[in-house]
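Sample A.
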Amino acid sequence: MASAFLLDMTRCIGCEACVLACKAGNQLPVDTQYIELIEHTSGTFPDLTGGFQNHRCYHCADATCVAVCPTGALFKEDGLTRLDRDACSGCGYCVQSCPYEVPVMSDGRSSKCDGCAANVGAGGSPWCVTTCPAKALEFGVRDAILAKAKERVAAIKDRYPKAQIYGETQAGGLGLILVLPDDPETLDIPADPPDAPAVVDLWKHVVQPVSMGATVLAAAGAGVLGIIARRNHMAELREVEETEKAGVSSGDPDTEDV
């Protein structure tokens, strides 16, 4: 059964409690974080409106990062996009392919939110959800989360005429359902991210075959060089043996026993 986050941006107060809780709960390095609050201002002075983009993994159903990952380090589970950093080769394809610019490289490997898999698996909740003081974040079964998001949008339409749900269909359906007060572009969120960006086709039809071909050629090349080196070495040994035999037969004092 698919799980999902509910993120109500009409309730987010920008306190960054989720940022700190995520960082501490997941014991992230100093230079790494899975959530970033980015302040946005739109409109023309003096008619300005402001808000926050709660930038985090969107857990796409059609996750391009999973599609291009050559090692299986990125994979789908319970509707969320998980990451096994131990299996990451550090190729960076996920960083290049994500339409939301979520994965980053940290210590030579991919780094991103995995939905607090260990914590949830032990019966807890994601750290960000547990600590949100404004109740802007919830976590649960995706169908229930989506239904609650629709109820909230209906309840705030008078105050936010452009209020809408984001994530119901984008990228195949997201594991992060957002309640937005306005069009997604006002928070620098792509209104319609591509389901299968060109980089996926590039990986499947160009990069992967070339990489495999290069690996095969490298292995073949190493084998040929090994054979040549062994032949040269054997030829040198035969030459030394012939020289020693010639010295003994000629009575060379340097080759006779003392």
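Sample B, a different protein:
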Amino acid sequence: MPRAFTLLDRVETPEGSLELRQRSERDFMITVGGRVLMSSLIHRSEVIVAELGCAPIRDRRAPRVLVGGLGLGYTLRAALDALPKSARVQVAELNAVVKTWCEGPLAVLTSGAALDERVSIVIDDVSACIRRAAKAELAERLDAIIVDLYEGPRNLKPGQRDPLYGAQSLRDVHAALSEGGVYAVWAEEPNQAFQQRLVAAGFQVELTRVRAGGPRHAVYVATKQGARK
């Protein structure tokens, strides 16, 4: 019989109790309101979204990358492994305790990715970070935006606004990216309406299906059109 998980830490959030649990040296999971958000045993899609998002811009002189969501740190680790030493990676994470976890007990999973000198972690909504980048000078625009949240694009009810994946949000993403920049997004499953919004916002879109030990997750890689100046 598998060992039971031990509760390491818990904080209250608007979505319920956010908990970090551990079963063995490298077996962790994060839950919120009793729902499993992520597990160290299943993280292939987290790695793939970073690899696909960074591959087109890895040869740029000093690429600037924004990662939405820290989680267990696997997406950040994969981005760092794919990028040069000159890269700068900012991570937007809503819960400060997740940063503490990744710098502490979870560091063993990613060789301390959250502590890498190339990384800065801000406690903020990734959408707010994108909006700021969209208003920045051209030299400060992002080369890649990688979004790996526990809820991906989904169908909306008529009139419902989507602050992460809606039409206005994607226009902000397009403005925040340098020419030829990349927007990579994890999703539970393909979403045709989201893909159509990406195209309408000015992106060339590729969809990759990822076998992640369960359902076939999806990764969208959207490239801003035009040659980089």
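Observation for Sample B: The chain has a mean pLDDT of 92.
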